[in-house]
Structures are given as structure tokens and as C-alpha cells.
User: What shape does this take?
Amino acid sequence: MGTLLTAFAGVLLLAVLLSSLAHRTILSTAALFLVAGFVLGDGVLGVVSLEPG
Assistant: This one.
């Protein structure tokens, strides 16, 4: 659970830092969370693993 919270906090901080850039472009902070979830999840790095139950 600690890894999930740390990953979320890091991505949230990155989203806040990039929010002014994202506002001027087609980049969306929601897209940033989607890509971060794929990269940090079982799809690529496997840092955060969520299992049902």
C-alpha cells in the first residue's frame, strides 16, 4: 500500500507542476495519470500491482 501511495503522490505532484503547460496544449492531466498507471502497473515496470480482493 505504501508503494501505491508514493506513486500516486509523485504523479500528482508531476501533474500539478505540468498543469499550466497542460492548460495551453492538448495534453490532459487525466492522460498523464492514464500513462503513469500503465507504466507503473503490470503493463511495463510492475511497481504497483493491484489485485482484486
Remarks:
- The radius of gyration is 12 Å.
